[in-house]
Design brief:
- By secondary structure, the chain is an alpha+beta fold.
- The chain has two helices and four strands, in the order E-E-H-E-E-H.
- The chain has a four-stranded antiparallel sheet with strand order 1-2-4-3, with helices on one face.
- The longest helix is centred in the last third of the chain and has 16 residues.
- It starts with a strand and ends in a 5-residue tail after the last helix.
């Protein structure tokens, strides 16, 4: 699996590749995280105001827009994604 997170103005663009068959689980995990800071390690997802989703050929592309008076930290989102995706890939190593 490959994750690429990039800030584009106020928005954050995310490309997650190699999640064939698990695309909806990835999207659902981020939706849960948006609802509660307890859903991931960084809590950054609570700053997401809206999320556009696109699923294609085993990958997920997301565009995150911050909520009112919020900013999205790409590093925090990446921490959150790695946390959300880790149970599907097995324990993290490092």
């Amino acid at each position: 699996m490959k994750v690429h997170v990039e800030k584009q103005g106020e928005q954050v663009s995310i490309q997650i590749e190699g999640v064939a068959g698990r695309e909806q689980a990835v999207i659902d995990g981020i939706r849960r995280c948006r609802q509660s800071a307890w859903a991931c390690q960084s809590g950054e997802c609570v700053n997401i105001g809206s999320m556009q989703e696109h699923v294609e050929d085993g990958s997920v592309r997301l565009t995150l827009v911050p909520g009112p008076d919020a900013q999205i930290n790409p590093a925090g989102i990446e921490i959150c994604l790695r946390y959300l995706l880790a149970p599907q890939e097995g324990p993290a190593r490092g």
